[in-house]
Amino acid sequence: MITTSVAAATPLPCFKNHSILSTKSFNSKPPRRHFDNATISSQSLPPVQKQRTVHLTRTVVCHAARRKPTVAADASKASAEGNDNVRRVLQIVLWAAEAVYILWLFLLPYAPGDPVWAISSETVNSLVGLSLNFFFVLPLMNAVGIRLIDAPVLHPMSEGLFNFVIGWTFMFAPLLFTDCKRDRYKGSLDVLWGFQMFLTNTFLIPYMAIRLNEAGSEDTPRDRSQLASVMTSGAPIVGLIGGAICLLSMLWALYGRMDGDFGGITERWEFLVSYLGSERLAYAFIWDIFLYIIFQAWLIGDNLQNVQLSKVGTVNYLRFVPVVGLTAYLLFLNLDEEQ
Predict the structure, then answer these.
(1) Which run of H or E residues covers position 52?
(2) What is the C-alpha to C-alpha distance for residues 210 and 87, in angstroms, rounded to an integer?
């Protein structure tokens, strides 16, 4: 018999802009042989005809088109564009918040209390008294018999509110000095935090907007100032002091100066409501607390890489809790990475 077989060649890949041979089968059948009716003996055939191999190949030209972007590349580009749009929107919102903060709390006469250009002598005296009772140093010294200076006697609710916000602001220093985007701010962080201690979000809001600028080649890490080095290396101490002041402020507001004529918790709460509705400084502190809640969670979330690895989950959860989250960040800051 005559045996006809098809030998398949090894497939070759199709490359871009190249023509190659393809061995794809086209269901081709080997050509038929026609014989006489006479019987042909296999011994009578030449050896080369006993088994004939027919190799069938067909040339196919593959015109590879220019490779289109992959789905992953498209998704990555869309994500980057989306992030850039979100960044711009956030910056617009922050700068708008800064404008509202200054206009509403400092200049316009519509918020409770007096604007800065019509501030009363009573408000000035109250502000001076609160500043003298900074971190309750004088009241506590007087309480143990140390009377270098007599502490001004103010309502414990106003003292508690003032020191609560200042204690929280105090803890923001190490957070700012370890912020991964701090070099996008070209000014002095020492000066910014110093003004923040006295004017709170008047300066923190612009910083939050500027740190969202696109990173540039000029955003090289700068040497830390002496204040930044002290605050960063002493972050756990700063956290304990600030957290203790905030806790003491709440206790002082409710139970401080019990020997005075300030009433119990009910009377003090009524004073707080009246105080917030009549004093511009107290009203501004409520704005500061609200913004601090947002900025604390935001900044800590952007800097979780600074936290000890075993504590990242805890800090990430607590960052939404006012004061407590920032205290946790400072206590668990990885100081080895920040040296």
Answers:
(1) strand 51-53
(2) 11
Residue 246: CB atoms within 10 A of its CB come to 23
How many CB atoms are located within 10 Å of the residue 252 CB? 22
User: In sequence order, what DSSP letters do the residues of 277-301 get, joined into one string?
Assistant: TT-HHHHHHHHHHHHHHHHHHHHHH
CA–CA distance from 192 to each of 30, 197, 210 (Å)?
Answer: 88, 9, 13
Comparing 128 with 62, the larger pLDDT belongs to: 128
pLDDT digits (tens, 9 = 90+) for 57-90: 444 444 444 555 566 556 666 666 678 899 999 9
pTM: 0.76
Transcribe 195-264 into DSSP letters: HHHHHTHHHHHHHHHHTTSPP-TT-PPPPPPHHHHHHHHTHHHHHHHHHHHHHHHHHHHHHTTTTSS---
Angle in degrees, CA 53, 59, 60, rounded to 5: 140
Contact indicator for 245, 167 with CB cutoff of 8 Å: yes
SS3 for 307?
A: strand
3-state secondary structure of 34: coil
Q: How far apart are CA 224 and CA 233, in angstroms?
A: 11
Tell me the C-alpha to C-alpha distance, in Å, between residue 313 and each of 60, 172, 175, 284: 59, 21, 18, 33
**What does the CA dihedral 102, 108, 111, 117 come to, rounded to 10 degrees?**
90
